[in-house]
Write a structure and sequence with these properties.
- The protein contains five helices and no strands.
- The chain is an all-alpha fold.
- The radius of gyration is 30 Å and the shape is elongated.
């Protein structure tokens, strides 16, 4: 009887995901009639009127905050279920660790009172 080797599936890397998206976009590269018409229409620039206001704000907002905001937008946030599960794990750990510290504290208190103070 031959033992089956367990295969572990690796998560795709970022470059593999990008390649898959590029291939997917190439397959659907034939634009429909609607998208062809949309491509010919000029895109309205709603921020055109805000440019004189936003340009001076660049001087007021440090580059650090701009780059930080870009990084935050790239974060993959956990789902609601993952958040609850991790929160529950933190609470359980806190209770267990707190009870261990309380137990050690109580035992050292008793030891100190009996050995050193001899009460």
């Amino acid at each position: 009887m031959a033992d089956k080797k367990v295969r572990i599936r690796k998560a795709p890397t970022t470059s593999e995901q990008a390649e898959a998206a590029r291939v997917k976009n190439q397959v659907s590269a034939e634009p429909s009639k609607i998208s062809a018409v949309k491509a010919k229409l000029p895109k309205p620039n709603i921020f055109r009127f805000l440019r004189p206001v936003l340009r001076p704000l660049r001087w007021l907002v440090p580059t650090y905050f701009i780059n930080s905001w870009r990084e935050v937008r790239q974060v993959t946030w956990p789902t609601r279920r993952e958040t609850w599960r991790l929160t529950l794990a933190v609470f359980i750990f806190a209770v267990v660790f707190g009870s261990m510290v309380a137990g050690v504290d109580k035992s050292l208190d008793l030891l100190f009172k009996k050995v050193i103070l001899k009460q």
